[in-house]
Task: structure prediction
Amino acid sequence: MVYVVEMDVHIPETWSEEKLADITAKEKECSQKWQSSGKWKHLWRVAGRFSNISVLEVDSPEELHQIISSLPLFPYMNIKVTSICKHPNAIRQTLL
Amino acid sequence: MVYVVEMDVHIPETWSEEKLADITAKEKECSQKWQSSGKWKHLWRVAGRFSNISVLEVDSPEELHQIISSLPLFPYMNIKVTSICKHPNAIRQTLL
Amino acid sequence: MVYVVEMDVHIPETWSEEKLADITAKEKECSQKWQSSGKWKHLWRVAGRFSNISVLEVDSPEELHQIISSLPLFPYMNIKVTSICKHPNAIRQTLL
Amino acid sequence: MVYVVEMDVHIPETWSEEKLADITAKEKECSQKWQSSGKWKHLWRVAGRFSNISVLEVDSPEELHQIISSLPLFPYMNIKVTSICKHPNAIRQTLL
Amino acid sequence: MVYVVEMDVHIPETWSEEKLADITAKEKECSQKWQSSGKWKHLWRVAGRFSNISVLEVDSPEELHQIISSLPLFPYMNIKVTSICKHPNAIRQTLL
Amino acid sequence: MVYVVEMDVHIPETWSEEKLADITAKEKECSQKWQSSGKWKHLWRVAGRFSNISVLEVDSPEELHQIISSLPLFPYMNIKVTSICKHPNAIRQTLL
Amino acid sequence: MVYVVEMDVHIPETWSEEKLADITAKEKECSQKWQSSGKWKHLWRVAGRFSNISVLEVDSPEELHQIISSLPLFPYMNIKVTSICKHPNAIRQTLL
Amino acid sequence: MVYVVEMDVHIPETWSEEKLADITAKEKECSQKWQSSGKWKHLWRVAGRFSNISVLEVDSPEELHQIISSLPLFPYMNIKVTSICKHPNAIRQTLL
Amino acid sequence: MVYVVEMDVHIPETWSEEKLADITAKEKECSQKWQSSGKWKHLWRVAGRFSNISVLEVDSPEELHQIISSLPLFPYMNIKVTSICKHPNAIRQTLL
Amino acid sequence: MVYVVEMDVHIPETWSEEKLADITAKEKECSQKWQSSGKWKHLWRVAGRFSNISVLEVDSPEELHQIISSLPLFPYMNIKVTSICKHPNAIRQTLL
Result:
């Protein structure tokens, strides 16, 4: 099953530059681990905003939550989750 | 350049079933023409809603508008357009 | 997989009482067919509003869309879809 | 009487990891006490978000408030409360 | 149990003056029947708006829905329902 | 003149438990003083939320502001003020 | 007592030009009657929008509602009502 | 003085294709007259939406309203008006 | 030219009482300076909220910004600016 | 390609005046560098608000993001990005 997830990041104002750099590095490592696993299919930057739009193919809603909630910035993001399926007008036989 | 476009359809209440069927057929034909052209990369149904999330790769903002505004339901959709680019944490070298 | 779906109905003002009665009857028949199938687990009325909150257990997002979009009032509802999963604090072993 | 309650958690940015772990543990203990009492019927995680959707069966609005406001994270949650009742199209004779 | 209900009326533009006068008269009759029954405790006009704020004391959520949905303008109102209970700082021993 | 006022409390995350307890006690004392004066007619808890709905009968908008702004939590509340008057369909001759 | 009222007009699409012209003329006559009475102190056009911001000084909330609801376009306007009073920093001794 | 104006068009569903074509032609004529006058500096299409962002330099708010309200689609547009001025960080000495 | 400006104040939670008292005093001094200058025509308190509605008559948008941004609480206010002009139905020949 | 970008600044309440002055100076330097490069065509202050509306002409969405995200206040701004193109009614042959 495939989800489109939009994440808006809100960096806490009290974080030091060191803490921000540290968490940003861990965030990168974490998201790349999931991309490498083949679950996190697309990670796109929204041009001009501290946001991303992602496409994930997972085995279950539980797995989607496991991936997203493992991100160090998870508690500081505003997240919109959309469950998608095949459109009757789509000419592709698969979603991805 | 790549855009993510979310379209929510609001069917006019005064349309007859014939008119709705006719426009729906033209909508399908139109969207499939653009998918076949290779510009409209993904057309996903939002599960449970009269909405789609689409991914288009176009040469210019003008071309994006040409495609979306050619849809017969264009005047009756609420549309959100997001311009995307490569995310620094993405492991794929290309957007699509 | 389980979804919580909230549907707000907006009755078209140009419908005659006959048309409204006819579609309401078909809506009832349709929703009861899906409840009888075991897919539509809960159908709750929001007290004081022309809305319902429903819980559906389906095999795929496609099936969720098939069910919701088969409702005669589907084009006239504002629909919010939420994909749910097991909560770490839940003491029940199953969602339903 | 039955309520559907949606809770979005906003973790204060100034909390230490120890404080967060401590309050999270107390939150779990508190919510499980109410689940064991039979009042808190369902506790579902919203997939991909720091939110839950819950279903509670209580004797009164006072009791609903007693339960929700006893949660340690209560002051830091955005909460939507919906009072539900039997839907005329429902085939089940009871809400739960 | 007591509810505060805010109702915003949206008069359909296609109604004739006769139809509007007829439904308005029936709306008055209906709301006064419920007020006389002692269930609909307060019916207040929001100054300057086509809206009311009402306070109802009912035996169940089902009864609240029965009352509100019996109003002829029910399908054309935007309705907000709030379930209330005793406030710890209140000096009155009863809600009404 | 009568106002319906809805107040949503947002407790500052940096307050110690002592400060919160202290201000909560002062809040109670302040609101009860105004209730005893006969100006603050109803103080209802919104079930499941850190909010109240209140009904105040005052001599002027100035007096309403004097009362609400004297609450210690005033700067930390999101407040909605509604001026109400007699509804043409109301059977009671007075608002309260 | 003084209110600031913002009114956004939504012209029904099914009105003929004659009906629109007729109601617009009556709207003008009605609003000018109230301005001449001295109750409707200011009537300002929002530049670039089909909206006005008005300032009314009335004897009661009932009188405010009597004035606003007498406008022929009243059912087709989205209206925001704000009750105002003297600001502690104001150097004028009166509101108007 | 300079304004940025965003206009979202909502085509009435009951208009015939002839009426829509007629009003669209008049809309074009009207907007081009104002562009030729030098008042309407920029008229940009929002890519993928039935919206425009415009920049107008006018002598007064009255003139802005005269221009925008002369558009045949004025009653059917949702309009956002922003008054702009020189930014302290701008290196250009003029706004346009 | 005349603007209606609505300002909602959000007091930072980390400010000491001394800092708040100091800035409040400077805010009063600043707003009274502009009122005395004749530019800031009306300063009204929104009854029951930490907000004001103001009317300013200025020579340019630059001057409006100079005045509003000189307020010490400027960075902590949510501000809505509306440019107004003469309404065709107004019987007064001037805005103020 | 051309974007219209609206940026609303939210100054962190815990910043000292020195830090704010330092970052404001760097913000100015950064934005002026991009203006001098010819990419950042317009930088307009929204009159009365801590916001700007900007117009940028860039080679790609990536370049837009590079510019906007290089601003020191980037993590503390709420940003709206709009991709624009030629309007069919525009008489200018170019966007800028």
Observations:
- Chain D has a mean pLDDT of 97.
- The longest strand of chain D covers residues 77-86.
- Strands of chain D lie at 2-9, 40-46, 51-57, 77-86.
